[in-house]
Amino acid sequence: MQPKISPPYRTVITLQDLEFGGTQRYAVHLLKHLNRELFKLELWVLRGGEDMLPMAESSGVPIKYLSRDSWVTPRALWNFFWRLKDEKPDVLYTMTAVPNIWGRVFAAITTNSVVISSWRGRQEQQFESFLWRLTDRLICNANALRTHVIKRHRVDPKRVAVAPNGVDVNFFTPDSSCRDTFPTVVFVGRMVKEKDPFTLIEAFSLLRKLVPDVRLILIGQGYLNSKLRQKVAASGLSKHIEFISGANDVRPFLRRAWLFTLSSVSEGFPQVIIEAMSCGLPVVATSVGGIPEIIEHGVSGLLVEPRSPESLAQSMAKLLLADDTRNSMGKKAREIAMERFSLEHVVKFTEEIILAAVRGKA
């Protein structure tokens, strides 16, 4: 029988690492804003990576690294298993792929914790068809992902909830005085195949024929970084593209930009899009995953098909060359971010989902 528990529920959030990423940023938001009268929080991290450690530490929540290795080693998993067995948290919230797999398995063996897991992208490597039964609630950040995981992995719909990403609209604010005098486009994301940065480079090359003085800022890290730089150099675009390896605070770059773009072929619910919107930027992005749930085409931005550099270039040019349209869409983007994606809304959704799972387990 499940022992009776009462608030504040000892809640452990687990991450694979604290490198730059949307899931990591979401986790930090929860650390800072979940109701302390309801949840006593800890963060467990399976491997090294400290890009977002200062932000996590600012929450005042205890942070425990289970290893400092560059990858999730057997030692990290061993420490994870025994810490769960010894400490038996009331709630275990697993995020990112490795914790989503092993956290559920270990919890099933060692504890009777309420297990919350995340599904924030089409992460087929999570073995969801088998592991969903070990999850009290699976939280997706987009309705498109909820539909996908139910259909593909036959997850019980009653166990799948949606809590969209949220943004601190008082932190991500517009500042037109910082805007570059020349047309500037910004991209923030991991340099990996899912983000398809090579299509963006092709689109930018085409865009320069339409808007010759345009500049592109690429912010992010990833295994494609060196190949991407080589392509930019070979294309003669080095003087027009600025590479930034990563930034704890992307606001200065968003405020410089005229618009934000994302060229992904696969997505969940990109955190950075709502941050850009909160900064008053219109968005040109591919119509994949949960992006159409964020961007209203023709109102707060423009949606294009993936792997189409021509469409991406034409849509960016359309906004860069039309000040009134671009400014109107940027204003609307800010309004939508405030109305639908504020942290208060998102944290409240998450709290209700966890509490419902606790009641169901009891």
Structural class: alpha/beta
Q: Any idea what the CATH superfamily of the largest domain is called?
A: Glycogen Phosphorylase B
> Over all CA atoms, what is the radius of gyration?
21 Å
Number of domains: 2
- CATH topology call of the largest domain: Rossmann fold
Please tell me the CATH architecture of the largest domain by its name: 3-Layer(aba) Sandwich
Poorly predicted spans: none
Contiguous helical run count = 14
Terminal Cα separation, in Å?
9 Å
Describe the structure.
The chain has 14 helices and 13 strands. It is an alpha/beta fold and 362 residues long. The strands form 2 sheets. Strands 3-2-1-4-5-6-7 form a 7-stranded parallel β-sheet, with helices on both faces. A 6-stranded parallel β-sheet has the order 10-9-8-11-12-13, with helices on both faces. Helix 3 packs across helix 4. The longest helix is centred in the C-terminal third of the chain and has 19 residues. The N and C termini lie close together (9 Å). The model has no long low-confidence stretch (mean pLDDT 94).
